[in-house]
Amino acid sequence: AQKITQTQPGMFVQEKEAVTLDCTYDTSDQSYGLFWYKQPSSGEMIFLIYQGSYDEQNATEGRYSLNFQKARKSANLVISASQLGDSAMYFCAMRAPLWGNNRKLIWGLGTSLAVNP
Amino acid sequence: DGGITQSPKYLFRKEGQNVTLSCEQNLNHDAMYWYRQDPGQGLRLIYYSQIVNDFQKGDIAEGYSVSREKKESFPLTVTSAQKNPTAFYLCASSVPGQGQHTYEQYFGPGTRLTVT
User: Does residue A58 register a pLDDT over 90?
Assistant: First the structure.
């Protein structure tokens, strides 16, 4: 069965420090994509970063990077130099398989991140 | 500005009434989605549509209905048959196609529905 697991319900980080949010996934498909979204208290889901299963390099987008360990089936989000505005819920999601018309995402339960000043 | 609009932000209804949630996008995306989010939960897919005049049930379609008469619009009706309709509803869209592309979903601001 396809599944996304986020084991950290809540995390705290000091402003300007780095933080890692965990995500493990389960799929039997060889081609898949992993997404991270941010949901601030306003409710809107904001796309942050994407990693494809065949991508050899870890994805990076500004202060966001994805620590992709295929053998361990993990796709952890690393936020560097945390800012107060990073306080939000963070969701990991997966699309599998990537080929064909499948556009459904499988979602984790999220991790609540609080950045302390 | 391109984006997805959902209206209203907050919606209140009496039990037994049908209610329609609006979702409009001007991103020229073919695919649109409706999700439900409950407190402490991830997103659950209600319905999705990959092209005009076609849509498929998601994981929790019972008690909901949709239409897709225009590319830009994908309204969701919460019917009286939905046993627990109070939730946060999110609409999204993405570019469909073949092959290994990102096709990330873009989301609207959401509608918080309260049924009493």
Answer: yes
